[in-house]
Amino acid sequence: MVDNLNLDQALALIDNAPDGALLLDEQGRVLAINGTLRRLLGATATDRLLGRIPGDLAGDPLQALLVAIDNFAFMGADRHPRYFAPQDLRLPPGTAAVRTRLLRDVTEAEHLRAENERLQSELAAQSLYDAVTGLLNRRGLMVALEPQVSRSRRYNSPLSLVVMDVYGVGAESEFLVRVSQILKDQLRWADMVGCSEDREFIMVLPETRRDDALSLTEKLTERLAREMPESTGAWAAYGVVEWQKTDNSATLLRRAQAALAQARTRRDVGAAVAL
After folding, report:
1. Cα(9)–Cα(13) distance, rounded to whole angstroms?
2. In the chain, N or C: fewer CB atoms in 10 Å?
3. What is the pLDDT of residues 211-252, one digit of tens each?
């Protein structure tokens, strides 16, 4: 038989709490619901929840109120989604309800977290630099490449592009950083190098003919073999193109990547294809 006095006393402690709360017995049965949660649920959902154990609510969103361990989303009677952080507290011995389940409303904090993630994503999308290597990312490289293409078109000066696919066994970030250092050491001050989201290194070589760009790939392969430990299994392939009058920055990069795709199929260390 339920001890009404103890239950009433327990309910009085939580009824005006700013967060939702449930009183549960040893079986997890809902004995009482405080005013905050009743207002959120509405009369119909409150009636469905009272006297139930979690197993009675299989497939019902209300079950999350009783069993969720981590933060969860719930649609209230106002049809606005809210986020709750659950916390279970034991009550003193002798109370009819043995457990209080607090449902702290963290909706505002969740919205702030989601907004922060959105802003971080937007900032990352607008960034011009790769977070791992510190080199220009693809977006940044395309911004830098466009003036070089315009210059070649205006003065009919040579311009080559090398796309390098490099692989190494071990900690990827450390390996990529080391490769980026080798590239920066090997290239001239006027050259530019970037790293795409696919971890391809892209080198822009102003005043450089295709044959000279091919010679550069040979030097890079030798440098990798000399400076990278054998344990890394360093392997590289290259796609090389020289600017043509029909090229813009996008078509130039596409041709270089098509050349790289052919070089990959050769399975030779330092394989380079020039188109």
Report:
1. 6
2. N
3. 999 999 999 988 888 887 666 677 889 999 999 999 999 999
Backbone torsions φ then ψ of 246, nearest 5 degrees:
-85, -5
**Identity (one letter) of the amino acid at 121?**
S
**Burial class (CB within 10 angstroms; exposed 0-12, middle 13-18, buried 19+) of 44:** exposed
Query: Is 162 in contact with 259 (CB distance < 8 Å)?
Result: no
Q: Is 181 helix (H, G, I), strand (E, B) or coil?
A: helix
pTM higher than 0.85, yes or no?
no
Nearest by Cα to 224 from 165, 141, 137, 273 = 165
- The per-residue b/e assignment along 78-100, b for 16 or more CB within 10 angstroms, e otherwise, is eeeebbbbbeeeebeeebbbbbb
Strand partners, 202: 163, 194
For tokens 């009675």, the residue is: 56
